[in-house]
Each structure stands twice: as structure tokens, then as C-alpha cells.
Amino acid sequence: xxxxxxxxxxxxxxxxxxxxxxxxxxxxxxxxxxxxxxxxxxxxxxxxxxxxxxxxxxxxxxxxxxxxxxxxxxxxxxxxxxxxxxxxxxxxxxxxxxxxxxxxxxxxxxxxxxxxxxxxxxxxxxxxxxxxxxxxxxx
Length: 139
Description:
By secondary structure, the protein is mainly α. It has a domain at about 40-80. Helix content is about 45%, strand content about 5%. It has three helices and four strands. The longest helix has about 35 residues, at about 35-70. The radius of gyration is 43 Å and the shape is elongated. The N and C termini lie far apart (about 120 Å).
């Protein structure tokens, strides 16, 4: 029988140290941390209660934001009925009945008294009125 001789050098000591370190880490991971299923259930119940409270109170926050940042129907109706001075109107405009403006009420139409003395300095088109009173141009 041959005798086994340990070779020179550290031998198996580095491997043994590494295995002991891994065993210590594994033991630490398996050790209870104090967070058991009962504590987790309590934490979930507290979070659910907080969500419910938030949802119940969200309406008040939304209503307060609307009140602070929105016009009421009455305010909108009054602004439509009487636009603020200097309001620009673009697009198609039509009216029935008497036309009123800042310079008066026009039961029989609108006249531009200064039209013959206004020199146009930009591109222009001829404007016509058809038999229905609609303004327009012909290319």
C-alpha cells in the first residue's frame, strides 16, 4: 500500500474556507427575519385601508380642483352672450335678427363707413353679397 503524501502549498484550506463561508451565508438566509405571514397580512390590510380612504377622499380633491380652475356654465354662457372687448372672431359667423356691436345696433345690415378711404396694403379680394345676404368672393 502506497502512502499518500499531501502536496506542498495551501492544499484544501482555501476550499474549506469558501465552503464554511457559503454555509454561514446559507444559515443567515434561512434564519427567520421577523417578517412572518401574519405581519405581511397586517401590512397588506393597512395598505388596502389607505387606498380605500384615498379613493373616498379623491372626489373632494377633484371637486376643489374643478372649482379653482374651471368656469361654471353660467360664466361661460355670459361670456358667449357678451364676449369681452377685443375678442377676435375667426371662421364662419352667422346671426339671425338684429346685429349689435360696440358701435350700435344694426337692424338693416352692417355698413363700413370708412371702406372707401381705407387703403389696403396687403393682398386683397373683391367681396360680394349674394341675394341671401351672405358675404363671399369670386376667384
